[in-house]
Amino acid sequence: NMYLLFIYLFKFICRPTPKGLWVAYNQNKTNNNKSTETKIKNSIQQYIAKKIKCNAQDQILHHNQASQARWKSQVLKDFRKASKVGIVLISGSSWFQRIGAATE
């Protein structure tokens, strides 16, 4: 579960949007003793470093969108699996209740 969360956060930060920059800026916000200027500078540096890392992993521009789509489909697959298990459990419990009612 933590692994999935980590992947999600990684994808979120590596997206080519200002959201990633905002996340990086908010991470630095905790160091209140620094001035806003250095905070913003550091957050931008962090963001650029992350972008470089992401781009090193995928040197194609549109790969990010493809990986996002892949990530979404993976989440859907996992969700479907989970819901299947949930349906089996729910139907199983109702079946047990029926047997319990019959034996009473």
UniProtKB/TrEMBL annotation:
Organism: Micrurus paraensis
Source species, domain of life: Eukaryota
Protein name per the record: Uncharacterized protein
